[in-house]
Amino acid sequence: MREKAIGVFDSGLGGLTVVNEIRNLLPNENIIYFGDTARVPYGNKSPKTIRAYSEENVRFLLSQGVKVIVVACNSATSTALDFLKNTFKEIPVLGVISPIVDELKREPVPGPVGVIGTRATINSNVYQTEISNALNVEVLGVPCPLFVPIAEEGLFDRSFTLSIVEEYLFALKEKNISTLVLGCTHYPILKRIIDFYFEGKVKLLDSAYYTARELKKVLIDNELRSFAKTNGSVSYFVSDNLEGFESVASRFISDSFENLNLVKN
Predict the structure, then answer these.
(1) In the predicted model, what is the mean pLDDT of the chain?
(2) CB-based contacts of 11, cutoff 8 Å, min separation 6
(3) Among 88, 63, 69, 87, which Cα is nearest to 31's?
(4) Whole-structure pTM value
């Protein structure tokens, strides 16, 4: 089991930010990544549909012989994580929300916390509830549905993107939030322009690093950490648009994408 791969899935390519951090923290581990590019985004789907898609994704990764599942999608984590844990009890399953909440507990938060994500993530109220329960602070959630296509199309440095950022985040700026949780794995691509909008005065947290850190703990606790002495490999699977994957994925992660495969759902 130790030498099996880590399974990671996302609705599209944002989860590659998590893969990048896993490679940095656990360089000797093999990773199998599945991006459900045929059905992206999940953020505008119903909870029932997201759970069904997520179950299919996990079953595919299990067919590849993985030892742990990382749900590198906030929409899937917020609506399907408990369902997946109950359905697949034979393997550790972790998401991207709890690692952020645990990080927020580590030191005092001086003011209100903002959370941005897809409609599914924000409407689930998982972030808002877990953060407010843990910290007893005001938590404000704002859906930002256009951020995913902006990230995937590489439009994060355009003037109109700043206008969209202002449209979505103006209310959070008016509330003088102290911390902003980037509740979608696509959003780190927009970190620079979001930081610019807040004039560097707001702490920005994304889940990629903290999820990789939590994964390391899960592997150690379950005696699943690889003993390999060489660098691991990453195999990429997508459900659509194999040709366009590499150009878009290169915005999220640096790799040659030599092991890239198409899977039909």
Answers:
(1) 93
(2) 35, 36, 39, 40, 41, 42, 43, 53, 73, 75, 76
(3) 69
(4) 0.91
Q: Are 133 and 158 in contact (CB under 8 A)?
A: no
Residue 241 near residue 37 (C-beta atoms within 8 A): yes
Among all chains, which residue has been given the structure tokens 């581990």?
29
C-alpha angle 178-197-74 in degrees, rounded to nearest 5: 65
Please write the tens of the pLDDT for every residue from 71-96: 999 999 999 999 999 999 999 999 99
pLDDT surpassing 90 at residue 40: no
Alpha helices in the chain (DSSP H): 16-25, 47-63, 74-87, 98-104, 119-124, 126-135, 147-152, 159-174, 191-197, 207-221, 242-249
CA distance 262 to 34: 10
CB 194 within 8 A of CB 168: no
Q: Calculate the CA dihedral of residues 121, 123, 128, 133 and round it to 10 degrees.
A: -110
Number of other residues whose CB lies within 10 A of the CB of residue 254? 9
Q: Note the pLDDT tens digit of each residue in 116-170.
A: 999 999 999 999 999 999 998 999 999 999 998 898 888 877 889 999 999 999 9
Q: How many helices (H) and strands (E) does the chain have?
A: 11, 10
Q: Are 232 and 9 in contact (CB under 8 A)?
A: no
Active-site residue set: 73, 184
Q: Say how many residues make up the chain.
A: 265
